[in-house]
Amino acid sequence: MKVELRHIHKHFGPVHANNDITLSIPAGTIQGLLGENGAGKSTLMKILSGFLRADSGEILLDDRRVIIRSPADAIRHGIGMLHQDPLDFPPLRVIDNFLLGQQAKGIFLQRNQALEAFQRLAQQYDFSLDPFAYVENLTVGERQQLEILRLLWSGVRVLILDEPTTGISAAQKQKLFATLRRLAEEGRTVIFVSHKLEEVEELCHRVAVLRAGRLVGEMHPPYDTRKLVEMMFGREIQAAPRASFAASIPVLRLQQMTLEDVRLRMTAVDLDVHAGETIGLAGMEGSGQDLFLRACAGLVRPVAGRVLVGEQDLTGKAYHAYKRAGVEFLPAARLEEGLVPGLTLSEHFLLVSERQGFFLQRAYAQRLAEEQIALYNIKGRPHSPVESLSGGNQQRALLALLRQPLSLLLLEHPTRGLDVESSIYIWSLLKERCRQGTAILFISSDLEEILQYSDRVLVFFSGKVSPPLEASALSVEELGGLIGGKGWEKFGVQRES
Amino acid sequence: MRKSLFTVFAFVLGLSLILSACAPKTPTPAPATQAPATQPPATEAPTQPPAPTVAPTEAPTQAPFVFGMLLVGPYNDRGWSQAHYEAGKYVEQKLGAKMIYLDKVNPADRPGTTASQLAEELVAQGARLIIFNSDDMKDESTKFAQEHPDVFVIMASGDQVWKEGKAYTEIPNMINIMGRMEYGKMIAGCAAALTTQTGKIGYLGPLINDETRRLAASAYLGARYCWTKYLGKDARDLAFKVSWIGFWFNIPGVTDDPTKVADDFINSGYDVIISGIDTTEALTQAKKAHDAGKAVWAIPYDFIGACEEAPDVCLGVPYFNWGPEYLKAIKAAAEGTWQSQFVWAGPDWKDINNPDTSAVGFVKGKALSENAARMVDQFISELAGGLNLWVGPLKLQDGTEYLKEGEVATDQQIWYLPQLLEGMEGQSVPQQ
Amino acid sequence: MKREQIGLSLGLRLLAILLALLFTVMVLLLSGAPPLEAFRQIVLGAFGSYKRFTDVLVSWVPLLLVSSGLLITFTAGLWNIGIEGQITLGAIATTWALRLLQDSTFPPALSLLLATLAGMLGGAIWALLAGALKTFGGVNEIFGGLGLNFVATALTLWLIFGPWKRPGIGSMSGTEPFPQALWLPVLPGLRLSLWALVPGLLAWGMVFLLLSNTYFGLRLKAVGKNLRAAYLLGVPTWQHMMLAFLLCGALGGLAGSFQVTAVYHRLIPAISSGYGYLGLLVAMLVNFQTLWVAPVAFFFAALNLGSIQLPIVLKLDSSLSGVIQGVLVLFVLLLDGVRRRMERG
Questions:
Q1: CATH number reported for the structural domain that contains residue A453 in this entry
Q2: Does C76 contact B at CB distance below 8 Å?
Q3: Boundaries of domain holding A75
Q4: Which residue, B218, B273, B193, B244, is CA-closest to B426?
Q5: Is A359 on the interface with C (CB under 8 A)?
Q6: pLDDT greater than 60 at residue B356
Q7: Residue B36: which pLDDT band, with cuts at 50, 70 and 90?
Q8: How close, in Å, is residue A374 to chain C by CA atoms?
Q9: Per-residue pLDDT tens over the stretch B41-87
Q10: Predicted-complex ipTM score
């Protein structure tokens, strides 16, 4: 089925997530959709699959104009979407999930019929799924397979996959790609959304690149990687900016740092953090990652070892000394620790302003606040008390309060409690910081987030710390296992007796 | 958390303000219809310094003479201030004069005011004479008297207009009045000595100054006299210990806790406690020990009705009776015979408990044994007969001579007693 | 704050005053006193003559100083209940300085100036002690302050009856009064000294400016509203708390100093006159709005003075003013709670 999008616009408050996007996808192709986080890819696909309505613009299927009001509507039109987070029902069996996706035909579930269809489809695409297994016991890859079968049984002719390779193993990825190619050969249209260049280059027949809500270009094979990167990130940042940072001295060095609190003890951690890199700290709540992050800010004093920021030895110094050295810490509890309820946005900007004399300059405060509000897309006025802002806007305000430039940014759960759009926007701001050379350490309990945004990952398990792991070589299962205490032997870390 | 602490605290503060105001309820519907004086003023006390004699009362024909009184504490404190308040009522009744008063005259209760300022308020309401009832107001009374020479001033317990005193200032419109409590304390000491079984008497003292020293010393002199004379025992076997709490009443954290001091006395074998402070811890703690089976007694202070709180352990109470001297002074003011003087009025030895004549009295308590009561009466009559215990040889606590053999102490020597006496245990001067 | 919120808050304030008055009337009726006459006497007692009005101003000055100072610590989220002790120490330090200087050849004006500065220093040091106990000893400032208040009272008594005893008898009446040259000059025939009134007003104005218009005030607000966040945002928090203590203590000390040089002319046992606790009530009532300190403190001073007429004229207990003040604070707090609930609902 041929899919055409014409002049699609979508706003989230002040964020212009899709800005006049026009894209035509012929039937039987695998269309790649590239762009960094927050570029507007997910928004566009959600519009196509009925989860969001465009503010304006048209959608044409096989040259016929359609209006898609809901996901169910989309399915009726033959469009199905595979989400980043599978939308299945974990406590149910595979076959029941398969059935749930079906349009109700009569009152009784036609289980036998469904089972038959399921097995036929599974065989056809070479998926080995036990229809009576419980979904919660499946891997992410298996869930994806289930979801694909379900959509196919629903009769979709356009399949949208949003970052489908995060969290699946290499073997599963190859199987997925094979499946997608086959679907295309059968005349179905596949839209493959990703920010991973190599995958797109490997799989797609054509690529469209989004940046900051706009469609900035399209490309057919053979792909010019340099050009794609340039389109994704804009002209000013050439490919691999990280390499140049890595050569310089690390922004943070932990040497044999030992931490202790009432619950646990973390011994002799070594770590070098380089400018521009992002390190995710994963672990069950209270496994030591919070202690670790605060120790990097001087908020927790190590019992042994050294903490160096740049070339300064700040071991045992207070947070404000770290701050002066270009380190900032953003707590998860935004209104409890981050912002001062009762003070307005502009008062917050004054508080961190570099230009503090004796008397307040109201006019300056107003200008400063307006600037920052515009710059960070904060939905609020200069005189709005911070507690009146939504969680996402509070987080934006916190980011706006950070100093420029910054060598190290430490974040606790940067997107906890935020909706998807806000999370994406926050991460686009953070990645912007990285590009300017700021290193980021962040805690998250969302494994997808860790894998998606980190370059390296540290896993914490009851006071033990893994060596830095390359995020790209890590799957969700592996990470989940480590968090749960499985698979540590390979690091040569003994369980403490 | 912070907020709730704030609220709770504010609440308590507000509530305490209200409660402190409500506790001593005061709807005193004005007096007026008292029975007329039953007795004409009796004979002058014999020990008086020469005072202008006063013609027998004529019925006041014009508007009644208005006098004002400033009380340091609540008018109904069952102590010092109430004794003054009742003296004022007594004068109203005897003289047909009118009293206006203001109680709780102290900067803590009336922030931002001075006693002289408050005295002016009383004058504004028609008072022609002002009584300042406390040592607290000494300087303010001087200031007021000097600024208002047309208003008569009585400064109770002061010594500004005592020509022989150390702080003499000429103030024609002022009279100082004080009762010779020394006698009351001697009798109290005597009762204590006659009752103690362990030979140990505790004196619960307030703060240390000349007045409190001389009162404690008086109690000791009375005790020693009755111990040796009536019981025939050796003075060296009598222990007399003074413990100062640091103020007239308990201020938690500032003074020693009188309850604890009294308990310490009882627990270390002191079986009679003489109180020199304004509150009744000595009595209540003795009562507790008594109820627990110990043989312990106490002697309160100031107020005639003080024994009522624990009659089972109360040996008696020395008290002030300001009425007669106030009557004399106010009458003199009304009649134009006022003369500035220092009055140090003693008991009427004919009957020390005569409300019309005696400035100082002693009411025997229920706990005083019959035998001891008889000897106390004997002691009183000896005093009436001219017995003077402030006679040499007497040494001060540090061993220096205070009175030579046979030397009789002058009023000044007694009033300004520099130390406790030899034989008394306890501090003589505040710790430096 | 939105317009209707301001309206609501103002309306509830008025309602609180009304309720407090109503409650007082009930108390009066219960004690069999004519309420109207009682109120008339209070008004007359405070404003019946020029001299009485100036007497109200005399007690307004220390209350203004203390309440203004307390707003600084309140803003920093601190309950400086040790203010009583700070007033007392201000008075002690002033007395100490005057005792040293009264026999010197210094001109009286200079002696007074030095003694006043000594008073501010004394109060500030006492406040810093409470602050240090909190910051470095982890002692809540309420308990630390109360303890220091006791120590200050004990110190006063010890000085009056010990080292600074007057000739003759050690007296509750205080130390020997200073020679008249060392009194702050008063308006002829009155008790009011402009040398106290003007600094009091200046201090109030300065606190207003400080809290509403300076970076220091803003940082103090941040510390008071969210200590943790203020720290993470880069505000040196304990330094600001100490500064708040210092300033409040200095103003308390100034109040104590004026008690000595303008009112009592000596050190007396109850030199703080309870202004500290009264100031806490004022500060609570105005709810961080510095401008309101002056009128509310004036109202309290007038009530205190006016109610003296009640026992004299009506034989009523004059602590009625305390009842009105206490009830007022309670109703304001109560209706504040109501307002918060309404805003949430």
A1: 3.40.50.300
A2: no
A3: 3-239
A4: B244
A5: yes
A6: yes
A7: very low
A8: 21
A9: 444 444 444 444 444 444 445 689 999 999 988 888 778 888 999 99
A10: 0.85
DSSP letter for B235, please.
Answer: G
Q: Which of B305-319, B418-432, C288-302 has the least mean pLDDT?
A: B418-432
Split at pLDDT 50, 70, 90, the class of A31 is very high
Among A239, A262, A297, the domain-final residue is A239
**Residues sharing a CB contact under 8 Å with residue B3, sequence separation 6 or more, in sequence order:** none
pLDDT band at residue B248 under the 50/70/90 scheme: confident
Interface contact flag, C326 B108, Cβ < 8 Å: no
Number of domains observed in the structure of chain B: 2
Q: Is B77 in the C-facing interface, judged by CB distances under 8 Å?
A: no
B165 to chain C: closest CA residue: C168
Q: Please give the Cα distance from B268 to B285 (Å, whole number).
A: 14
Instruction: State both tokens at A377.
Output: 């897309």
Q: Is A235 on the interface with C (CB under 8 A)?
A: no
- A374 contacts chain C (CB < 8 A): no
Query: Dmax over Cα atoms in chain B, in whole Å?
Result: 73
Instruction: Say how far apart CA C345 and CA C337 lie, in whole Å.
Output: 12
Structural domain contains residue B378:
yes
Enter the tokens of residue A217. Answer: 């270009």
In a domain, A344, yes or no: no
C17: pLDDT strictly greater than 90: no
Domain boundary pick from B308, B338, B358: B358
Touching, A vs C (3+ Cβ pairs under 8 A): yes
Q: What number of C-beta contacts closer than 8 Å exist between A and C?
A: 63
Chain C hits for B251, Cβ within 8 Å? 150, 153
Q: Do C315 and B30 touch (CB under 8 A)?
A: yes
* Partners of residue C171 in chain B, C-beta under 8 Å: 135-136, 138, 209
Model confidence at A122, in pLDDT bands (50, 70, 90)? confident
- If asked whether residues B130 and B279 sit together in one domain, one would say no
Task: List, as ranges, residues 137-166 from B with C-beta within 8 Å of C.
Answer: 137-140, 159, 165-166
Specify whether A251 is located in the same domain as A198: no
Question: CB contact, 8 Å: C6 with chain A?
Answer: no
Please write down the long-range contacts of A374-380, taking CB distance under 8 Å and 24 or more positions apart: A375/A400, A376/A400, A376/A429, A377/A13, A377/A14, A377/A15, A377/A425, A378/A14, A378/A345, A379/A13, A379/A14, A380/A345
B1 touches chain C (CB under 8 A): no
- State the nearest Cα–Cα gap between B72 and chain C, in angstroms: 11
A79-82 and A158-162 beta bridge pairing: parallel
The mean predicted confidence, pLDDT, of chain A is: 83
Q: Are strands B316-320 and A304-309 parallel, antiparallel or unpaired?
A: unpaired
Q: What is the pLDDT of residue B347?
A: 95
Using a CB-CB cut-off of 8 Å, the residues of chain C touching B113 are 55, 59, 304-305, 308
Q: Would you state the torsion angle of the CA atoms of residues A156, A157, A163, A166, taken in this order, to the nearest 10 degrees? A: 60
- A365 is a domain residue: no
pLDDT (tens digit per residue) in B299-340: 999 888 889 889 999 999 999 999 999 999 999 999 999 999
Domain range for residue B111? 60-179+322-358
